[in-house]
Design a protein that fits this description.
Blueprint lengths: L13 H13 L18 E5 L7 H4 L7 H12 L3 E2 L11 E2 L2 E5 L12 H17 L5 E5 L1 H10 L14 E5 L2 E6 L4 H5 L5 H9 L3
Parallel strand pairs: 1-4, 1-5, 5-7
Antiparallel strand pairs: 2-3, 6-7
Length: about 210
């Protein structure tokens, strides 16, 4: 079976490697490596984000942990019984996911929080291996358009096949559904583009 996670010193993306080296010098106490997925492989839901945030997952080593995006995602999962424990914005907070798993289309932090299509392509083998390993998988939740596009390419669809629309659900075949959400970034929540209710409704619609 293909590997689910890149090596800690993965060299597939030169731009991201250069940025990693810079951050290892600037923030020596950070994780500063590809961020592994979080949650059980036997889950029915896979949440796919864009990439680790510089001072979020790149710092803590856990997806959506340490920045504003996680401050909406994890309380939502707790509210909907998709997680147990207390969210403390730390990989050591003891939080446990239930029936869902979280990953990123690109596993390493990108400069200016902006990954590119080439980097998504380089990481695609890990995402595909993860999807294949999740034998109970029913729903993929794309957090943002970048993740939506990456998932379409992973399944061999043209980007024109399914338009990214917040709250939309698409049948991908083989018993899989793609659900779209605006990214739960602080920018989107602070501007009102995404409200907690809008985000919660995406997950409620899965059941």
């Amino acid at each position: 079976m293909s590997r689910l996670e890149p090596d800690p010193d993965c060299t597939l993306c030169p731009r991201l490697v250069d940025f990693r080296v810079q951050n290892q010098a600037k923030f020596p106490d950070f994780h500063n490596a590809p961020v592994q997925s979080f949650g059980p492989l036997d889950a029915e839901i896979l949440i796919v984000g864009l990439a680790p945030g510089l001072k979020g997952a790149n710092c803590t080593g856990r997806p959506f942990t340490g920045d504003g995006a996680g401050d909406l995602l994890y309380p939502t999962l707790l509210k909907l019984n998709l997680a147990d424990g207390d969210f403390g914005a730390s990989a050591e907070d003891g939080l446990v996911l239930k029936n869902c798993r979280i990953t990123n289309a690109v596993r390493c932090v990108p400069p200016a929080n902006k990954s590119n299509a080439q980097e998504a392509t380089a990481c695609r083998s890990f995402l595909l291996a993860e999807i294949k390993a999740m034998k109970n998988l029913k729903t993929l939740v794309a957090i943002g358009k970048f993740s939506h596009d990456s998932l379409l390419k992973t399944f061999g669809f043209k980007l024109s096949a399914f338009k990214f629309v917040h709250g939309a659900q698409y049948d991908l075949g083989n018993g899989l559904v793609l659900a779209d959400s605006y990214h739960c970034s602080s920018y989107n929540t602070n501007t009102g583009r995404l409200t907690p209710k809008m985000f919660e409704d995406v997950f409620k619609a899965l059941f």
